[in-house]
Amino acid sequence: MAQTYTVRIKNGTKTIEFRLYDEKRQQIEVGDQIEFSKLPNLQEKLLVDVMELYREDSFENLFRKLYNDEEEITRKVMSAVTDPKRIKKDDLGNPDVCMVAYYHNLFSTKEEYENVCIECREGSRGCAACKKQLAHNIIETLRPIREKRKYYEDHPEIVDKILMDGTAKAQKVAQETMKKVKKAMKLDYFAH
After folding, report:
1. What is the pTM of this model?
2. pLDDT in tens, 6-61
3. How far apart, in whole angstroms, are the C-alpha atoms of residue 78 and residue 41?
4. What angle do CA 61, 65, 67 make, to 5 degrees?
5. Which terminal Cβ of the chain has fewer Cβ within 10 Å, N or C?
């Protein structure tokens, strides 16, 4: 994994990782831990917990599911289940059983999350206000990703160039690696 991503995982600004749903990854379950190795030398390891899994048959469907428009995100959050024992705004709540509080922990700052929990327990904040804040935070977290996606959708020639450049770079590395393999196995008798 590239250094920029490992730094973002450590500081909590990267909480989603996309991978193909191949045979190896079909074994992953919520609660598992995954070890990433930081590029370029793979010496530094980073252990992360799997909090949630999204399985789709294509990246396009996964993006549609995760990165809906702002109205859809707000609609989904506003329909989320909260503490079932909390009926009125001033009822004392339990954020430990509330999915909205769980997602605040993922999409809000530490300070915001702590305030949500305190205000919920005190009954000083209603669930609707809590959901509106969460929807706003999710939208703002996803905004740069959606903007970047839109940019690349509007500029497919850049995506093509990135893929071609990456392929050329990978081929060069693979050729050098194969030279070393052939030399180590003494199969380089045709090399000059």
Report:
1. 0.55
2. 777 777 666 677 776 778 888 888 888 888 887 677 778 888 888 877 777 776 67
3. 45
4. 110
5. C
